[in-house]
Amino acid sequence: LDIALQMQINIFGEEHIEVANTLYNLGNVFYDKDQDKNLVIAQEYFTQALKIQQKLLRKDHPDIIRTVKM
Q1: Average pLDDT, whole number, for the chain?
Q2: According to the model, what pLDDT value does residue 11 have?
Q3: CB within 8 A of 58, min separation 6: which ones?
Q4: ∠ CA 51-30-38 to the nearest 5 degrees?
Q5: What is the pLDDT, as a whole number, of residue 36?
C-alpha cells in the first residue's frame, strides 16, 4: 500500500482526496492489527488523511466524520 500511496502522490500531488483515502485505508490496516506500535502508526495515517480532508471537504462531510471517529 505504501507503493500505491507514493504513486498517487506522484500523480495527483500530496493534497488530493485520493491520497487522503489511501492514507485512511493504510491507517485501517494498522488499526486492525491492534498492537500498541501499530496503533501509533495508524493514528499518524489518520491524522495525515484528516488534514487533507479538512482542506478539501466541507466540515460535515462523511469522510471527515469517519476519520475523526478513528
Answers
A1: 93
A2: 96
A3: none
A4: 100
A5: 84
What would the mean pLDDT of 59-69 be, rounded to a whole number?
A: 93
Please count the residues of the chain.
70
Contact 24, 45 (CB under 8 A): yes
CB atoms within 10 A of CB 18: 15
Distance CA 68, CA 57 (A): 13
Backbone angles phi, psi at 15, to 5 degrees: -115, 65
C-alpha cell at 16: 488530493
For residue 48, give the nearest of 10, 1, 16 by alpha carbon.
16
Spell out the residues 6+ positions from residue 66 whose beta carbon is closer than 8 angstroms to its own.
24
Residue owning grid cell 495525515 = 48
pTM of the model: 0.89
